[in-house]
Amino acid sequence: MYSQPHSLHARALILGAGVAGLAAAIGLERIGVRPLVHEREGEHARGHAFLLLGNGLRALDALGLGASVRARGVWLDHAEIRDGAGRLSHREVLPDCLVLTRADLLACLHSGLRQVQVTYHSRAAELVCGADGRIHSAVVETPHGSARLATDLVLGCDGGRSLVRKFVAPASQRRRGQVDELVLLLDEAQVARDLGRGLLKVHDLGRGLAAGLAPVTDGRVVWWLQFDTARHKPHGDDASELQRFALESCAHFGEDLCAPLRRAEFDKAHWWRTGDALPLEYFQRANAVVLGDAAHPFLPFTSQGANMALVDATRLAAALEAHTDLDAALVAYSRATRPDAVAHHAAGVALERNFVQGAPSMATLPRSEACVS
């Protein structure tokens, strides 16, 4: 796949060097397009961990990185589900589930770049359009000044605050989610050994709470807490308040889940204020296209943020390889992406509703977490 140089030879600009941006850069480079990549944050990877599922793993295989990613992650083969009192409900089999840190995934993606350079601390401030309605250049700002970069193709991989999405779909609005998530990466070697290849998840259906633990590499575990913000919410972002909130929320979930929280450094916790948006009719406009969270922000229940970002990157490269006309390629990518975006968005909305209502179906692992068709 992606063995022949692309006839377009476009000047491509990728805004964002997260999962979507780096994966897209690899895909473009493999068809002979060497993009410029600009990232508003620094090079140091922020974030915690991802659950990679079947669709994301297949996309990594297509990018030539499947083996290296699998070597860095931890395979999960089962989930232990408990009720709100911490009592075992049942165990479930997990097909194609790999956990790894965001830093490890980004490191693997960086290793797949050949000659592409990423410019960090470089924020796109303006997209400059011509009379034809196409983006002719982008103004980027760095600590050393601003520059105008000419371009034939713009990829918006710039997340929820995407400048490119505003160009592609100016009327689209983000909806604030009702269920937020608190996430923390813990150095807990014994807890990781006890978990083995299992994921622990506790659902308190009556209170709108769920928490979980999963092992990652190097003796660490990722811990998360999902909470209905209409009934539960920390009083602030400071570490002591987040720790208090976490311990009180998980008080009845079992000592094995609570004990690590007493030792944790909550100044490194991330409070994910969730949200989504109705799926776009089109993920491209003129010579601009959106991928990953910029294209389709999902609620957390589906675990599809990173997975679909990887799929988007491979789909775009395949569309560009198959079509010598840029506009036709972007339309083909958009059409291929929309069915999955619609399905994952609908799944997230339904799972959020069931979570808030305490539906019995939430006492099992949501299918979109466990497998992807």
Could you list some keywords that capture this structure?
373 residues; alpha/beta; FAD/NAD(P)-binding domain; D-Amino Acid Oxidase, Chain A, domain 2; 2 domains; eight-stranded mixed β-sheet; six-stranded mixed β-sheet; 11 helices; 19 strands; 34% helix; 28% strand; disordered N terminus; disordered C terminus
Largest sheet: 8 strands, mixed
Overall mean confidence score, pLDDT: 92
**End-to-end separation:** 22 Å
CATH C-level name of the largest domain: Alpha Beta
| SSE order | EHEEHHEEHEEEEEHEEHEEEHHEEEEHHH
Give the strand line-up of the largest sheet. 3-5-4-13-14-15-12-16
> How many domains would you count in the coordinates?
2
Q: How large a portion of the residues is in β-strands, by DSSP E? A: 25-35%
Q: Output the radius of gyration.
A: 21 Å
Assembly type: single chain
Shape: globular
The name CATH uses for the topology of the largest domain is FAD/NAD(P)-binding domain
The percent of residues in helical segments reads 25-40%
CATH architecture of the largest domain: 3-Layer(bba) Sandwich
